[in-house]
Amino acid sequence: MEDNRNVYRLQGLSCANCAAKFEKNIRAIETVEDVQLNFGAMKVTVQGDASIEQLEKAGAFDGIKVYPERERMKKPEPFWKKRENVAAMISLVFIIAGYLSYFQVGEKSPVTIGLFGLAILIGGFDLFKVGLQNLTKLEFDMKTLMTVAVIGAALIGEWAEGAVVVFLFAVSEALEAYSIDKARQSIKTLMEIAPNRATVRRGTEVMEIDVEDVRIGDIMLIKPGQKLAMDGEVIQGQSSVNQAAITGESIPVHKSAGDEVFAGTLNEEGALEVRVTKRSEDTTIAKIIHLVEEAQAERAPSQQFVDKFAKYYTPAIMVVALLVAVVPPLLFGASWSEWVYSGLAVLVVGCPCALVISTPVAIVTAIGNAARKGVLIKGGIHLEETGKLKVVAFDKTGTLTEGKPVVTDVVSLSDMDTGKILAVSRAIESYSQHPLASAIVRKAEETGAGSVQAADFQSITGKGAKASVGNDVYYIGSPILFDELLSVPDRVSRQVKDLQKQGKTVMLLGTGQEIKGLVAVADQLRKSSASIIQKLHKLGIEKTVMLTGDNEATGRAIGRQLGLSETRAELLPEDKLNYIRTLRGQSGNVAMVGDGVNDAPALAAATVGIAMGGAGTDAALETADVALMADDLEKLPYTIALSRKTLAIIKQNISFAILVKIAALLLVVPGWLTLWLAIFADMGATLIVVANSLRLLRTKE
């Protein structure tokens, strides 16, 4: 079946309510099967046939412009040039003239009424057009409520207040659109990171072409000071490349032949030739943008609560407004004009704008800010869960340590010298894929150990390996392997235990009859690991746990060095998975931090799976809820702090929005709630909620 899906970018979409209405209008187009609108990313996905003209007609009520996803959008009009903002300023001029007339010839004068009437018509033309259409369809959104309120005010002779309400509404709409645009700025910045054109060499021809036309295998030429347009592999030259745009690392990384480079990164001093390895839509930066946009569209639990609340809240406000307008005059003989006026004010103050926007703006801002700092949070739900973490579990190798073990000790336990021990060890381990094997091979090459050949290599799962060297069969592996082969002397056991207490992994080398020597290997701790654990404890993380397949003594030694709460050693992947489940049962919210490949089951089982080194590894981007793009834990405390701040801001926003409504509604009782005060309360609440959310842009590392 043909996939008839088209993605479009939007310009001019001003509010969350407008987004819902726009989506509904598109759905009403007969040829459209399904539609998904992403308010945070300003994108709409349409399944079925719909022309751009049809889509723009569906969004005409809000002046929405529609562009195909791959097409460059026109620069938006400056804030002060927008038609609706110009109309609001002209309206203000008539309001000022109206008040001058009010004080000169009185409020009942035709001149005064005429000036306020013109202010209402000019400033509220777009508002009434939509509001009256909505009324005929019995759709009650902010514009409907405002239309009813302004027409009602004019009918009961409150022309001045009607004009002020129209102007204040226009100002609040403009400021809300401006603020939301500011929140979206982070994603726009990401989209502009990579250049649109690349200089490539095909055969002998050098040309500058659009990135969409670059093919895999093309050779891209990058001069000093240029940004890379595509992902690829360096084939010639060397240079420092600033990868801050992708990984958040401020220190440039040295690149030479064979190294991977990413679109959007900055080549500093050398010239590079790069073989393109991915199409423009598959580059790391394109994936980041896609994931961030998807994340911003995902509804967080608190947003789901707000959406449900607003669904019942708006009709309830309509009923309250009607009761305020008719009950006192009908039952207690009160003044109709006075109580209809109060009813209109209740309509205006009751609009759920601030409430509806309280969560999405905070989430869009936080996710965008994190992406610019090299942290990918794949949805509002993961942002909220990260803010509630109590326990953080770490994989050891490659997470807390460098993941590149080095040989620290070579000890002879027989008449075989250390050079021969290394040579025989290398001969066997050169067949093995184990990380410890590569450490021995590197050490033998560095020290110039002699070269011997091994044959009949055989791996002994989980314990070591054996092979024939010369006329003898040699074994290399853990002390457990030699316990099964022969009786390990006490002095050797003591030496092994001493080295293990220092955090080293010990491998013995010997034949079936005698232990010839030992090789101790240690994975180097990352320089930042200890300070990061301290920062997490300061942030209020109750427990930090290390999960490792290493032996107990090595695990404990590293755990002590880092100041971890707990160390679990000698774990197989399924043991890690089971232990994460146990931790969740005990503590509720648990994060697992790993490299996203061999830790995939544990990452999936944790409340929040955090993968390191997302740049370059698709597995990390796919399996994790949060990806730290740099191969470093530095961003972990920042991510947790940002998530906690986001949770706090969402709670503040929801509480504030509801309290302002309650306070304003209580003013109805003594009759102090005026129309302009009602819209001031609504506008003020919306702007304060948005401004509070934008504080997340300033969250520092």
What's this model, at a glance?
The chain is an alpha+beta fold and 701 residues long.
How many individual helices?
25
Percentage of residues in helical conformation: 40-55%
Overall geometric form: elongated
- How many β strands by DSSP? 26
The rounded distance between the terminal residues' Cα atoms is 48 Å
Structural class: alpha+beta
As laid out across the biggest beta sheet, the strand order is 14-26-25-24-15-22-23
Radius of gyration: 34 Å
Binned strand content: 15-25%
Mean pLDDT across residues? 86
Q: Give start-end ranges of low-pLDDT stretches.
A: none
Largest sheet: 7 strands, mixed
Our count of domains comes out at 5
Structure overview:
By secondary structure, this protein is an alpha+beta fold. The protein folds into 5 domains: 5-75, 2-Layer Sandwich (Alpha-Beta Plaits), CATH 3.30.70.100; 83-186 and 296-362 and 648-698, no CATH class; 197-282, Calcium-transporting ATPase, cytoplasmic transduction domain A; 375-400 and 526-631, Rossmann fold (3-Layer(aba) Sandwich), CATH 3.40.50.1000; 402-524, Calcium-transporting ATPase, cytoplasmic domain N, CATH 3.40.1110. It is built from 25 helices and 26 strands. It has a 7-stranded mixed β-sheet, sandwiched between helices. The longest helix is centred in the first third of the chain and has 33 residues, at 159-191. It is elongated and about 115 Å long. The mean pLDDT is 86.
